[in-house]
Amino acid sequence: MAQLPRSEEDLLLVIDVQNDFCPGGALAVPDGNAVVPVINGLQREFSHIALTQDWHPAGHRSFASSHSGKGPFETVDLDYGTQVLWPDHCVQDSIGAAFHSDLETVHANMIIRKGYRRGIDSYSAFFENDQKTPTGLSGYVRDRGVKHVFLSGLATDFCVFYSAMDARKLGLEVTVIEDACRAIDLEGSLNAAWEAMAAAGIKRANSDKI
Q1: What pairs with residue 86 in β-bridges?
Q2: What highest taxon heads this organism's lineage (predicted)?
Q3: What pLDDT, on the 0 to 100 scale, is given for residue 187?
Q4: Could you tell me the domains of the chain?
Q5: Is 97 helix (H, G, I), strand (E, B) or coil?
Q6: Reduced to 3 states, what is the DSSP secondary structure of residue 193?
Q7: Which of 63, 104, 169, 175 is the most exposed place for a label (fewest CB within 10 A)?
Q8: In Å, how far are 86, 135, 166 from 57, measured between CA atoms?
Q9: Alpha carbons 186 and 139: distance in angstroms, whole number
Q10: Residue 152 DSSP class
Q11: What is the β-pairing status of strands 81-84 and 110-114?
């Protein structure tokens, strides 16, 4: 397959490449640090780059430690839907919340911090998990004339997936860069995510085709 042409209407969206999602972190994605050199290389191909950063206050509602008798990866029903409970991670101003030290951030036009409201989790780069509260990224996309979002980062089956699906709902063309992402794959969540994204018209490509 030929390389996809770059355009001023393209955005590289880099999802949550933070210490807590990399090996040794509180919620490590297997091989998560392997995305860093791929993403660094991709950044040279884009005029528009946005990074997201999980940014939870201590005692966040999505933490298993905030729910008596519950453990990590169990679920609870909250007012905005079913919530997976996570180990405490990406706590504001912690080392775990910092971007991976090798990730290039100087090219970013925008950094979106999400999940900073104690009462609601935020997987998507566009909306929090109530599907109503915006992060501000949709305004950037609109004002900059972005038409095509290319997704990278962690994790394929959660924050990348939700961001991709919301981008499609906003009418954008979406491509997930497979080798620039890694997955948690919680009870088949990776296959389910790929199937849902395919049904939504989301494309898949490796970085050498971007």
Answers
A1: 63
A2: Bacteria
A3: 87
A4: 10-55+89-209 (3.40.50.850)
A5: helix
A6: helix
A7: 169
A8: 14, 16, 24
A9: 32
A10: E
A11: unpaired
Contact partners, residue 142, CB within 8 Å, separation at least 6: none
Establish whether 114 is a catalytic residue.
yes
Please give the torsion angle defined by the CA atoms of residues 45, 103, 62 and 57, in that order, rounded to the nearest 10 degrees.
Answer: -120
Per-residue buried b or exposed e for 17-41, using 16+ beta carbons within 10 Å of the residue's own CB: bbbbbbeebbbbbeebbebbebbbe
Cα–Cα distance measured from residue 161 to residue 123, given in angstroms and rounded to the nearest whole number: 9
Per annotation, catalytic residue among 22, 90, 159, 181: 159
d(CA 130, CA 108): 27
Q: Which of 22, 54, 114, 121 is catalytic?
A: 114
Give the CA distances from residue 14 to residues 45, 131, 162, in Å, rounded to whole numbers and listed in that order. Answer: 13, 20, 13
Q: How many Å apart are CA 113 and CA 98, to the nearest integer?
A: 11
**132 has a pLDDT exceeding 60:** yes
**pTM value > 0.90:** yes
Q: What is the distance, to the nearest Å, from the Cα of residue 6 to the centroid of all Cα atoms in its chain?
A: 22
Answer whether 97's CB lies under 8 Å from 88's CB.
no
Catalytic residue among 16, 88, 157, 166: 16
Q: Is residue 159 annotated as part of the catalytic site, yes or no? A: yes
2-30 per-position pLDDT tens digit: 455 467 899 999 999 999 999 999 999 99
